Amino acid sequence: MSKTVLITGITGQDGAYLARFLLRKNYKVFGSYRRLSTPNFWRLHYLGIFDKIKFLSCDVTDSRSISECIQESNPDEIFHLAAQSFVGASFHQPLYTTDITGLGTVRMLDEIKRSNKKIKFYQASSSEMYGSESSKIKNELTEFHPSSPYAIAKLYAHWTVNLYRKAYGVHATSGILFNHESSLRGLEFVTRKISNGIAKISLGLSKELTLGNVSAQRDWGYAPEYIEGMWMMLQQKNPDDYVLATNEVHSVKEFVQEACKIAGVPCKKIQISETNLRPFDLQYLCGDYSKAKKKLGWKPKTKFKKLVKLMVEEDISRWERWLKKEYFPWDAATSGEDSKIINS
Ligand SMILES: C[C@H]1O[C@H](OP(=O)(O)OP(=O)(O)OC[C@H]2O[C@@H](n3cnc4c(=O)[nH]c(N)nc43)[C@H](O)[C@@H]2O)[C@@H](O)[C@@H](O)C1=O
């Protein structure tokens, strides 16, 4: 018999890839999203799955809304991906981030505890929770030293998952995912900002790209592979915590250099601006995924250079199609800078 899933935050990169993955596995997919004036469904259209999803509007700041959403979908599994997920923005909106990213998870878990403890719950925990102060390579046993409002909210949610597992027997699992990227990434995140910016420079649509802390190093993997790992976690008999990572780090500068090489753009077109710096930034994050490898049989496949290549080539192709009037840049249309071009 086919299973039913509820994905909160289905409009984001991970939600869209996960929906496609589960549809291919014959799941009935319910997806919740925040009711905005202009819902942002471009990724679901891009993957050609929009018509296959049953949409529910759900506000994770409102327990009543969560309760209705769970009742209506009656899921076997919930992947809770809804969050304010941009670390930079969390410094400007700490309370909003705490409410959505931290308390949102508590409200979800509490509703599961109240209504149906058979539901398997996946929490999108984050490598940001580690902060900079702990040991160099992070695994499930490493101490957390969260250093942004986003990281603190995620850690609060992470510990709540742990508590509901132990105290109430909820089948709640946390995936501690290191950065995972793709051509469906939002333009506010650095990898997609670079691939999109350099694609536009290469086609004469933009003159330069402005970044912040280019010496920061991250463990960057390919998002669709991480989605599969998330699903594997929920298929286990017992709930647990798992790290997904590549165990390889590269700096933002290296990402820029590789992207420039692929697009044939001189690196001097990249500027640095104070406005892109965070009040506090993590310099280095590297993950150890050996538990996921041993227990789930999961491992990353796409290497750094291939990841940069696929992102840059996809953005160049999108803008080329836009120049030929064959394609509307859905995500770029929502960002200020790009909308100037679209409107001109
Ligand atoms: C695992 C974790 O992964 C992501 O969080 P993030 O690592 O903060 O991702 P990011 O792409 O915003 O920044 C990466 C690094 O790049 C630096 N950087 C330089 N210049 C710019 C710049 O211009 N823009 C941005 N965004 N970053 C810049 C920035 O300062 C930082 O050091 C989220 O998915 C989060 O939800 C999550 O859970």
From TrEMBL:
<feature type="domain" description="NAD(P)-binding">
    <location>
        <begin position="6"/>
        <end position="311"/>
    </location>
</feature>
<comment type="similarity">
    <text>Belongs to the NAD(P)-dependent epimerase/dehydratase family. GDP-mannose 4,6-dehydratase subfamily.</text>
</comment>
<keyword id="KW-0521">NADP</keyword>
<dbReference type="InterPro" id="IPR016040">
    <property type="entry name" value="NAD(P)-bd_dom"/>
</dbReference>
<dbReference type="GO" id="GO:0042351">
    <property type="term" value="P:'de novo' GDP-L-fucose biosynthetic process"/>
</dbReference>
<comment type="function">
    <text>Catalyzes the conversion of GDP-D-mannose to GDP-4-dehydro-6-deoxy-D-mannose.</text>
</comment>
<dbReference type="InterPro" id="IPR036291">
    <property type="entry name" value="NAD(P)-bd_dom_sf"/>
</dbReference>
<keyword id="KW-0456">Lyase</keyword>
<protein>
    <recommendedName>
        <fullName>GDP-mannose 4,6-dehydratase</fullName>
        <ecNumber>4.2.1.47</ecNumber>
    </recommendedName>
</protein>
<dbReference type="GO" id="GO:0070401">
    <property type="term" value="F:NADP+ binding"/>
</dbReference>
<dbReference type="Pfam" id="PF16363">
    <property type="entry name" value="GDP_Man_Dehyd"/>
</dbReference>
<dbReference type="InterPro" id="IPR006368">
    <property type="entry name" value="GDP_Man_deHydtase"/>
</dbReference>
<dbReference type="GO" id="GO:0008446">
    <property type="term" value="F:GDP-mannose 4,6-dehydratase activity"/>
</dbReference>
